[in-house]
């Protein structure tokens, strides 16, 4: 079986870079001064042991972040960044993540390191025995595990090119075994390039057993390794499985998973599963946390690892397989303990490997970043460019602890910079980003079925829910959304059920509309296209209209749509009620774009000041939009006798727009607690008559202090089946209403159940909806 | 209170023609030779006593058709026509409706007239007592009742102009009372113009008591009137109510509703309700069936009645109210018994009334048909233009019975001419027309909420269902339709659940799509825009493609959409499975437009022949589309070495299109019974995984005889959330599947329940769905 030739075959080529990835990243929680925190794992994270994304590792302070399995590196890093955002913002604003593999200063007394307070007693017991066997200090080291699976199409294509091995599963296992043995043989190269644990902080070592700095304490014999009597051979899967079993039987390992190696073969829950199912993927475990990357590992590193694994599959291995692996462990220990600024003793070998990798990539048409090989060669030529080298050099000025603290602080600030966004997914709609944040926090699997289309699959155990645009779900019936989409139908149904809607008529014919002039002429009324689009084609006559103006308005509306509505105009303030499952979760009042004078600054300056709010931006990427100073705003100012350089009086409010849309710079003001129950009841009842479960319904109310009993105090303008949520979550003024979390809990009611089971009642006050009887 | 002045007020004018209408029309069922039928009321009609549209009147053969209340005459006549269609097609093809008020030849023995076999014994008993009191023959007379209500805005506007009457309800009652008294006074005009029962048929009169022909037997004392000792005064509501109660008390009337008058005051279930609620509307009962109108009354007649009622409200009445009414009854009997071809003795009065009406209409800006007054004057000048005159003159050649039979036959043929349409609603989508037909037949209230948008409200007692486009309902969740709308998401979900879908990738970037050439080049594949529109931008490569062709195809697809799909091409036949509530209700195979040679005719002639099928037409107004002979068809012929004037061999099939869409002349072939259960199960299971309840899912199957166990025997192409239904109901070949009735029964399962309660099990075989275990 000539694997080199096989890899070069045209039938294999299209699939060479197909793979599946996953990252696990550990890290210690510290306070803002870089001290190990004394707090528990954050309560806002669903704290079940089996949280898919954010767990506790050995200690209560050690967070483990886990990505889902992805099919591209882009996706992988998107999820990794997003999970970091969730972790940071769930910890609250007094904590951050330590950016090094080596822990920060540890307590003097080992017992003060708190073992993770998990729910399952077995999990706690396992940690207790690790603590007995290795000491708690060593367990505080953190690292990155990189899970890698060759694409099935790739292995299938390779399999089809040979006839030596008849069994597909066996073939696959051999592929991974060869790659693994070569990885173990050459692991020193990873340690050289990406080793990043040169020095320990206070109280890590009980005595000065090690001559620091080195390249990687973590990857050396002083790091996270088994006792030397634990020996596992990689020459065959049978040997590997039986060796590990033997170690457990002899008591050298408490559990199979205690076997620490630079690579772990994976294929099931237990090592013994490998015998039945073969190797399904491998877990690279010798990656130190990259201090210079917010996520602890760079995209280029991952790209290197992928290419390196293809190279290792391609590259011939030594004849004596077990010796080959053993030599690798030996070389690695040497490199790990080298000074971070000295050239490695294997520099020549490293240069050869990198040259070969580059040739292979070219030959096989593998696309990689332009800078990958340049950077690799630089690191090889100049050890101060390696991660350990950089960290050590930075630490020469300050201490390593100070460097780490200031890096952590930077990461912390980035995570809090735009709290309405979810890093990795900022191209998606804000509501979807918020929903994904909450889903991750609650431990719900999030799969993006169509990114452009904002289409998510959420899964909690066997319970699957699909969500589009943040709140289009299985809970609403199709026809109820169609009802809301059609204003005439919505109005008819609400009217039939006794709600007040603006009187009016729909016209499909201009002559017929004109003949109805008498019906409206003397009252306040509005003319609008049936399907309105950003307010185009709308004319409002607050005191009736003469025939000429009526004709103009009708003609204008018909330019936008083949059907138009002429309706009674209702006086009052417009409120958006967000109704979810027969409860009012938020009420918002929207105020047209405006500024408040201070008697000193011009209107233009005041607009610029107001636009500096980080919540304001362009194109719906922020919860509020910047106020514009365009033609319409200037006209509006002119109408009030102002220009852009006028200076309004102190506390004077100047409006720049007639319409109150948030998209044209309007202010969103939460008034949920101020709106009386009787109006909330109208909103809930109306939504219920439309058969809707998730709905943003707009009411005009003249005076909320006047009881709603009199039907003439309000009017229902329209109902929206995909109401914007972010304007409630991040209002300009008033309390935030975390609607996306309400959606999550509505879709997955079992979450609240399970949290109360564990004694963690959800008590966040902004998660209260108004149930109206 | 000067009602004349009030009616001319500008605040009243806009509402003058606002009104609500309803029609009830009785008619005898006859066989195709015009003989009274001996069959029961059709079983296909839901036979509950309270059917809102199609009931039995006195006898089992007497059908009563009832429109819903409408706000325009257009709507009124649409429903009236539609209900006629349903009645005709429900009777089956051996029966028709007698087009005259006077019944056809009656049985010699009165007892052979069968009293309606109603479910409620009280209803049967009431008919028995009528039969005792008037004899069954007289009860066989049929007529039209025209229900009329002035628009509430009109009465409100009038009310606001006066201060004499403080109570709105009382004011309204006075409006109706005046109109009613004047109507009764001038009823002879209706009898003159629209009386249409000049002669009786055999066995109606026991002896020759009447000198036929007359204008209206029905409206004369020989017709449908109470015994002369029944006297009810109209001077006040109190008097009216107490008189009727008295008549019942005295036993002169069996029930209140036995009081026959040209106008009945309406306001509730019982006459006594009038006292509490006042008069809500009036029922004009003196309208003979118009033999010359398929629906028994013309639009112009209804227009006249509306205008006449406004005129009667406007017109001063006599000072002695009861005398005024009494005189009217007397005049009417005179006119009713005039010879249909002689001038009426009230010609001068009639002329005055018509002149006044015309002036009033002009003065009040009331728009009426241009021909209304011309026709009225013609009828006045020439009695042979009145309905009675026309019917009598036509009957001079043949007998009246023969004339009626041939008119009935014409109406019958019109009703069966396009069985896929519902008269009155032919502008709507075929599926919606079919659904409305079935709803009416099942006695479900149908309200059109938005006609252009095909939006219906269906109601059975308190149970309301909204339906758009025939099958968008409350049963499907919103997100499941969004899943189906997105091909990539649909495929992902089906693939995750182990169904075979074409392998492929979605691309949003042309370069990325081109780089993937190798993935597809050597296999059959298809390139298409993500959102396909009538097949634009699709390229199929059945044997792979070279790079140049691949590039062309990709470019073409990106012209249609910003996202494209490149997918494996599956060989086989495409089947459309219509799945409803986890059952397969229909399977269709679609064959591209084609003709079958006969060795004699040219292709062009054969196409014209095939297009003569009444099921074929243009623009989706028929279940099948005409085959075109355009550019594409000519190209396709050329490719096969044919021209339009080629003569294909006997039995040779020549295809004119590559694609099998029905919209481009394809044939629909029902294969429901031929498709094996295992493929039906795949369709049902796949739809279930998409969370859908109503779905048209397309499977490619290579050979239906090969069991589906092997996943490679089929592939799922797409799922449609608004699948066309009419192509299953009216297939080109194979059995019809009444999917709209399935939808009705799915939405209203109580229908099946109630039918079985009455012993009428639904046994129509085409209403069977395949439940697959």
Automatic annotation (TrEMBL), chains A, B:
Instruction: Give the matching Pfam families.
Output: ATP-grasp_6 (PF18419), Glu_cys_ligase (PF04262)
Superkingdom, according to UniProt? Answer: Bacteria
Q: In which pathway does it act?
A: Sulfur metabolism; glutathione biosynthesis; glutathione from L-cysteine and L-glutamate: step 2/2; Sulfur metabolism; glutathione biosynthesis; glutathione from L-cysteine and L-glutamate: step 1/2
Q: Which InterPro entries match?
A: ATP-grasp (IPR011761), Gln_synth/guanido_kin_cat_dom (IPR014746), Glu_cys_ligase (IPR007370), Glut_biosynth (IPR006335), Glut_cys_ligase (IPR006334), GshAB_ATP-grasp (IPR040657)
Cofactor(s) of this protein = Mn(2+); Mg(2+)
A GO MF term: glutamate-cysteine ligase activity
Which Enzyme Commission number(s) are on file for it?
6.3.2.2, 6.3.2.3
Q: Which controlled-vocabulary keywords does the entry list?
A: ATP-binding, Glutathione biosynthesis, Ligase, Magnesium, Manganese, Metal-binding, Multifunctional enzyme, Nucleotide-binding
Per its record, the protein catalyses:
gamma-L-glutamyl-L-cysteine + glycine + ATP = glutathione + ADP + phosphate + H(+); L-cysteine + L-glutamate + ATP = gamma-L-glutamyl-L-cysteine + ADP + phosphate + H(+)
Domain called ATP-grasp: residue spans: 491-748
From the UniProt entry, list the residue stretches annotated as the region Glutamate--cysteine ligase: 1-336
Q: Which NCBIfam families match?
A: glu_cys_lig_rel (TIGR01435), PRK02471.1 (NF002688)
Q: Which family does it belong to?
A: In the N-terminal section; belongs to the glutamate--cysteine ligase type 1 family. Type 2 subfamily.
Assembly mode:
Monomer.
Q: What does this protein do?
A: Synthesizes glutathione from L-glutamate and L-cysteine via gamma-L-glutamyl-L-cysteine.
This protein's name = Glutathione biosynthesis bifunctional protein GshAB
Task: Recite the lineage of the species.
Answer: Bacteria, Bacillati, Bacillota, Bacilli, Bacillales
Whichever gene encodes this chain, its name is: gshAB
